[in-house]
Structures are given as C-alpha cells and as structure tokens.
Amino acid sequence: MSALITSSRISGAEIVKELAFFAVIALLMSVMILGVETVDRPTGLELAVRWDLVVTAIISTIIGRLALILRREHISRVGQALLITAAAVAVFEMFVRFRDMDDRWASPVFLDMAFGSATSVIVAVAFVTIVFAIAYFSMKKPGAEEEESGSRLSSKIQLAYRTNTKKIGALGIVFFIIFPFLFGENRSAIDLATLVMIYIMLGWGLNIVVGLAGLLDLGYVAFYAVGAYSYALLSQHFDLSFWLCLPLAGIFAASFGIVLGFPVLRLRGDYLAIVTLGFGEIIRVVLINWYDLTRGPDGISSIARPSFFGFAEFDRRLPEGVMGFNELFGLDYSTMHRLIFLYYLILVLALVTAFVTVRLRKLPIGRAWEALREDEIACRSLGINPTNTKLSAFAIGAMFGGFAGAFFATRQGFISPESFTFLESAVILAIVVLGGMGSQIGVVLAAIVMIGFPEMFRELAEYRMLIFGAGMVAIMLWRPRGLLSFRDPTILLNMSKKEKVAGEVK
Amino acid sequence: MTDNVQLEVEHLTMRFGGLVAIDNLSFTARKREITAIIGPNGAGKTTVFNCLTGFYVPTEGRLTLYANDGPRLLERMEGFRIPRNNGVARTFQNIRLFTGMTVLENLVVAQHNQLMEASAFSLAGLFNLGRYTSAEKEALETAKFWLNKVGLYEQADWNAGNLPYGSQRRLEIARAMCVNPSLLCLDEPAAGLNPRESAELNVLLQSIRDDQGIGLLLIEHDMSVVMKISDHVIVLDYGKKIADGNPEAVKNDPAVIRAYLGEDEDDELPPEVAADLHLDPNA
C-alpha cells in the first residue's frame, strides 16, 4: 500500500499527518452529532452513545481523504477507485446503522450482506462494482493534462447557452404553455407549477432591484404582502373585481416602494439590507396588530376568486344570470378549469415581468441601473440622478411584487401575516442569487430547484433539507456567482453576439 | 473680458473640521483654454475639483460657470445636476469606468439625460416609439464620434475593464465628453501613461479645446503635459494660490520653485554639519 501511495511529490509522513488531521476533524464533527443520542427511557431521558457511527464516520473520512490525496498527486487510478469504493461502503454502513440499528455491537451490515443470502451477495457485489466503475471511469488518467477536459466541457456548455439564450428562453416559454396539456389531469402538478411560477415572478421582480440596480433588498416580501392585502381588502370592503384590483395592487406596492425608498436609498450595501429587512418586518407586524383593518393573525378568508375576465365564473353553483366557464365554452364542469386558468394567469403575469425587465435593460433607465450598480460616484459625475434611478428600480420591482401578491391572495383565498415572513424574502433573494444576478433563465432554474424540488421530494422528509444544503454547498463551490451569471451587453457595434461571447468564454 | 470667462472661482474656502484644505482661492478659467492646476501632493487640487463638481459643498465662496445659456452658481447645485445641460463633466484620479459594461455602453450611459427625456421616462422606449429610436441613433453617432476620436472604435464591444490602462484613461475622457459639457475637468489624466501615450493625450486635449471649443481644467503632475499644452497655470500649495500665469512665468516663479523643491537648505546648515554630510557645494 505504501508503495502505491508514496511518490516523489509527497512523503508517507506528510500523508499520515494530513490523514490524522482530518480524522481529528471528523471526530470533532461526528462526536456530538452522531455519537450521542437522547433516548426516552422509562427512567427519564438518557444519553445513548453510538461509537460505531463515530468510528465509521472517521474511517470513511480517512479513506475518502486518501482517495483525494491520490487524486491530487495523480497517483494510481485503480487505487483511487478502490478507495472511493471503500469510502462509499463505509458511508453506506454509517447510513444503515444510523437509520435502523438497535444493537450498537452488531457486526457490520455490509459484511453480513456480502456473506449472507444469494440476493444480498448480489446486491453487495453490484453496489461495489457500480461504485468502482463510476469512480474508475470518471477519473482522469494519472499524468493526463490537468483540468483540460473538464473546463473545455463547461465552456462548451456556456458557449452553447449564451449564444442560444433566446432560443432556450422561447423553448422554456413553450414548455410552460403546454404544461397543463401534459399534466392537465394531475392536480398537484398544476398546483406545484403555479407555486413555482409565483416564485419565478417574484424572482424576476426582485432581480430588477438586486440583479440590475445592485440594491440588496431583504424585505421584498413586504411588497408581496402589500399587494396581497390590497386585493383582499379592496375586494372585501368595496367589492371590486380582481381585474380592477390587480393594477391597484401594483400601484399600492409601488407607492410603498417609493415611500420606503425615499429615506433609505442614500444607504448602501449592508446598511440598505438591514433597513429593508426592518421594513419587511414592520409591514408584517403592522398586519398582525392592526386588527380592525387586517384582522391580525386570523387573516382574511374567503377572498373572491377571479372571474374569466368578467365574462364567466368558475364556481359549480352560480346565481341566476351568471355564466359559468364551462357553459361559455360548452365543456363539462371540472374543478381543474379554475386551476389551469390560475396557472395561465400567473404565467402571463410572470412573462410580462420578464418582458418588461428585458426591455428596460436596453433602455436608458436599465443602463443607468447597471451603471449605478458598477459605480455610483461615476454616475453622479455623468448627471445621472442616483436617488431617482434607484427609486425607479425599487418602485418597479415592488410593483411586480404587488401583482404577484394580488395573485397569491386570489389563488389561496386566504391570507394571513404568516405567509409574509422574513423567510419568504430570504427564499426569493436566494432564488435571484442562486440563478445568477441579472439572469432571467437563471431565476427560472433556481425557482425550480428551490421551490419545485423540495415539494416534489416531500416523501424524503427531513433528508431533503440535507440534500438541499449539500446542493447549496456544491453551488457555492462550483458556481459561486450563481448558476448562470453572465452579463450580455445591451448593444453591440462591431461584433456579433456570438463573437463577443466566444471571446469571453475562452 | 467677462465674455471669455468659462469659470469664475471667488474666495473658495473648504474646511474639514480644523483642516483648511482650500484657503480663499480665486481664479478664472477661460473658454477655449486649457487651465492647469498644479501643486505638490496634498495642496488641495482634487478638493477644488470636488467642490466644482458637487461632491463637496464649499464652506465659503462662489463658483460661477458661464454656460451657453448664462451663468450658473455651482455651489448651490446638487452634485448630479452640475453635469446637466452644458455643465461640468469630470474624470477621476483613479479611473472610474463601468468596468463590467462595454466601452460603447459606457459612452451611451453618459448620454443618459437626453435619452431619458426622449424615452419619456421609459414609456416611449418600452413600446419602441420613433422618438426614442431616433434619439438612440443620435446617441450612438455621438458615441461613435468619440470612439474614433480616442481611437477605441475597434474595441467598442470590449468590456471596459479589459482595456489597457492608457485606453481606460482615454475612454474616461470620451465618456465625460459624451455628457456634452461646457467645462471639462480632468484629474491627473496623464498619471500612469508612458511618454508615447501622454503625447497622444496632449493631441487629444488640444483637439478637444480647439474643435469642441470648450474650456479644460486639469490637475496634472506630468510637467511635459502641463507645460506643453496649458494656456494658463495655477499653482496651489497648502490650499493657497501661490502663482497664476502662463507656463513660462510660472516655471520661473521663485515661490513655485520653493514649493516644489523646498527651501535652499544648504545655506541654513552650519558649515561643519554640511561637511559631515559630504555635501559638495559644487554639485
């Protein structure tokens, strides 16, 4: 073994030192998390010790680290694959013991499998073979040119994406339009798609503020709340229809954006973030405490559902003289009609947001936002009014938040301050940052990853949060600036977009 | 005399707490002339610029800009209003380009106010109305003119941050000119340039003066630039004006020599100390 791993680059002692270091780290991390468990005994709560888990954690860390050393030093492809397989077995062992072992001194599960019944032997061998094969073939040969193939592949993908952004966007739109036809009977699919679409719209709205104008806004949910409550209250107290309230909700949210923005937009960076966070909380606390108007924590229920543009309703039982949607189109009554209509409604609202953002980016106001993000002092020296420019970004972002809020209220039929917590702001911001600041398609991907995946894998219970965390760490490592963080110029003189992109990707 | 004045600075004083950065400074800069402000480090040159361009509000004094449409008092204006409508444009000592945007975009952003008006605060632009498209075309023509002028037409689609240093300096000047100012303030435009680049800069600045017919105010340490192209030199030391005149007169002004080279200290040293220091009186 030592002949296998020692090379001219690294001595055995150094390897032992490194492994010992990581073993200690693994010990420190696992001893509290895995090593002890509170157990409910008849005598009261007791601490149970699970040393087997700590030991397997340390062993898998050591083996994995050894594989990494080999990889780093370009030694022995077979050795690397073997070690990775061994580490995988150790992790598997740890996982199984963690979930359903009662006897802490039982012999390793994997050994039992390997020497057990015919089926378990086959499963064990297949596991080892598959992991080994994946490890072996995904590894580059020792001494092969470094980093070559990987970076070439990623730059190829990048080039393909950036030269075809419009086509990819159009394909995405077509997909979302035909989505109800693909999953028309599946209620939960439509519901989930609607939910994801709300977050896509919120992400696009916040993208104007954070991605384009570079103003870190941690209280975006306030505008969402303003939109939702404007619709709920207007429709309940004044009996206004959704179609009239939608623009009003946008206007209210935009006015709140301006009112908030006026005093705080002289702040920058962290300070602005803190103030916007505070504003988000103020709105929520007011909603909770202004009982006469908002009915506080009880929320507002039975909010009116939208009609089909005022021509028809979606309800099963209708008062005399009101046309039903199914009658209008000569269909049989189905509860899916309303859901699909809501889906298309949010799709259209989101697309309007995207269209306006893309257009604004190429207009003087959008260029000024981006310039302001780059250098505020230079902007002032060019006669750009920083306050108005920031305010316009804030107000337009808030307006789309307000539209989304009104939609949320009419879709849910019930709203309460619970729906507008800081966590929502954080999720929306995470979508924007994860997608890559300023990228429209990035927001879509990020919303699917952040909202869609956790909902889809609800059966995995708390493990999905673990996977979610691991995914976030992976993105921080490989794409720290977001999934699709590229800036396309708004105007080109000599080059085609393809040439410009090719020059940057190289 | 007054027809020809571009900028009149009267009794400008700027105090930061107890520190007097500029002390009762008065000077004029004339139209179609290059006025240079020179002085040792810390003399208050950049502070003068910051007062002129609205980054600081002067403690005392009056700053009058004679634009095409009459005099304006700069010290009363909000910073971002000063560059508007034939106002004052400036560049910075440490270049401040929009590095992530292309060279062309930098020049288009500089024409923000005209374009904003044409786009009717984005409404006309959103629906691509004719009045906006024609204004944008015009802005592009201006940008192209300045790209050619500073020799960056080929690099128009590069990101500004990828340009070599000398080109970034020229781009910053072009960007300031796209604001269509009546007075251009340049803060050390030749800093970090090699001799060939600074010779090109001289040509560019002279052409801005002669062809655009605007006044230039520049802070500069590179005497090969200052002496060659300035029509008028003002020397500051510790916030006070110590000389004012044409380059030749300033160069030979004893006060200026003292400010730059210090007192002739040899005379003040006792002879034995001078001998200890091995100072050769003939050196």
TrEMBL record, chain B:
Organism of origin is Thalassospira xiamenensis M-5 = DSM 17429
**Which family does the similarity line name?**
Belongs to the ABC transporter superfamily.
Kindly state a single biological-process term from the GO annotations of this entry.
D-alanine transmembrane transport
Q: Supply one GO molecular-function term.
A: ATP binding
* Alphabetical list of InterPro entries matching this protein: AAA+_ATPase (IPR003593), ABC_AA/LPS_Transport (IPR051120), ABC_transporter-like_ATP-bd (IPR003439), BCA_ABC_TP_C (IPR032823), P-loop_NTPase (IPR027417)
> What are the top taxonomic ranks of the organism?
Bacteria, Pseudomonadati, Pseudomonadota, Alphaproteobacteria, Rhodospirillales
Q: Does the keyword Oxidoreductase apply?
A: no
Give residue ranges for domain ABC transporter.
7-263
| Superkingdom assignment | Bacteria
Cross-referenced CDD domains? ABC_Mj1267_LivG_branched
Keyword Nucleotide-binding among UniProt keywords = yes
Residues annotated as transmembrane:
none
| Alphabetically ordered keywords of this record | Amino-acid transport, ATP-binding, Nucleotide-binding, Transport
One annotated Gene Ontology cellular component of this protein: plasma membrane
Q: What is this protein called?
A: Branched-chain amino acid ABC transporter, ATPase component
